[in-house]
Amino acid sequence: QSVLTQPPSVSAAPGQKVTISCSGSTSNIGNNYVSWYQQLPGTAPKVLIYDNNKRPSGIPDRFSGSKSGTSATLGITGLQTGDEADYYCGTWNSSLTTYVFGTGTKVTVL
Amino acid sequence: EVQLVESGGGLVQPGGSLRLSCAASGFTFSSYEMNWVRQAPGRGLEWVSQISDSGTTIYYADSVKGRFTISRDNAKNSLYLQMNSLRAEDTAVYYCARSYCSSTSCYRDYWGQGTLVTVSS
């Protein structure tokens, strides 16, 4: 099982906001930058956030990231049906010298 | 346009071997760290291995260490994953992913479409 813990699912109505937490330790989130990935059904993952809170070009500002201590959070505002997907956090784990992904969170638009 | 195309997946018996390939195009392959990431059916993402741009620095997940070998051929713009002693739990879609390294960290910015590996008798 992953060393990064996410809630299995979150849901909200269209136009609303959801937040997804990613809990780790000083070996990973506490001392490394966090990325967030979106995986739409049947497709490869896509990066949404890197360096805790930066968005690659083309990613709308409805997606935001933050980090505090050993936890990180992804926020999605103005929720759309096209946002229904699985979301994963990821970061380097210094003690294991491995990259680790979170357990994943399924976002459902009600 | 950056493209990553995996190949080599298929059905293999437990204990068998398979070699995955990833053909890269649209960028200077030799300048980027590369990764293999897998996803078992209905499960989450699992990072498998990464190799530096020159091939000199390599890391593996504990679950594959000693059984899998990552390598690259910068002249052929290709990434490889040699998988030996395969187990049922290695069944997954295997993705090739590029790492983009900023001044502060590396993140997986481009992914292939994946190739399915099924380990079963």
Question: Helical percent range of chain A?
Answer: under 10%
Strand percentage of chain A? 35-45%
Counting helices, strands and paired strands, the structural category of chain B is: mainly beta
What string, H for helix and E for strand, traces the elements of chain A in order? EEEEEEEEE
The value of Rg of chain B in angstroms is 14 Å
Main beta sheet strand tally, sense and closure of chain A: 6 strands, mixed
Radius of gyration of chain A: 13 Å
Distance between the termini of chain A: 29 Å
Give the helix/strand layout.
The complex is a heterodimer of chains A (110) and B (121).
Chain A: E1 9-12, E2 18-23, E3 35-39, E4 46-49, E5 63-68, E6 71-76, E7 85-93, E8 98-101, E9 105-109
Parallel strand pairs in A: 1-9
Antiparallel strand pairs in A: 2-6, 3-4, 3-7, 5-6, 7-8, 7-9
Chain B: E1 3-7, E2 10-12, E3 18-25, E4 34-39, E5 45-51, E6 58-60, E7 68-73, E8 78-83, E9 92-101, E10 106-111, E11 115-119
Parallel strand pairs in B: 2-11
Antiparallel strand pairs in B: 1-3, 3-8, 4-5, 4-9, 5-6, 7-8, 9-10, 9-11
How does this model look, in words?
- The complex is a heterodimer of chains A (about 110) and B (about 120).
- Chain A has strands at about 10, 20-25, 35-40, 45-50, 65-70, 70-75, 85-95, 100, 105-110.
- Chain A is built from no helices and 9 strands.
- By secondary structure, chain A is mainly β.
- In chain A, the strands form 2 sheets. In chain A, strands 1, 3, 4, 7, 8 and 9 form a 6-stranded mixed sheet that branches. In chain A, strands 2-6-5 form a 3-stranded antiparallel sheet, with no helix packed on it.
- The model of chain A has no long low-confidence stretch (mean pLDDT about 95).
- Chain B is mostly beta strands and about 120 residues long.
- In chain B, about 0% of the residues lie in helices and about 55% in strands.
- In chain B, strands 2, 4, 5, 6, 9, 10 and 11 form a 7-stranded mixed sheet that branches. Chain B has a 4-stranded antiparallel sheet with strand order 1-3-8-7, with no helix packed on it.
- The relative contact order of chain B is 0.30.
- The chains are: A mainly beta (about 110), B mainly beta (about 120).
- The interface between A and B is medium-sized, with 26 and 25 residues.
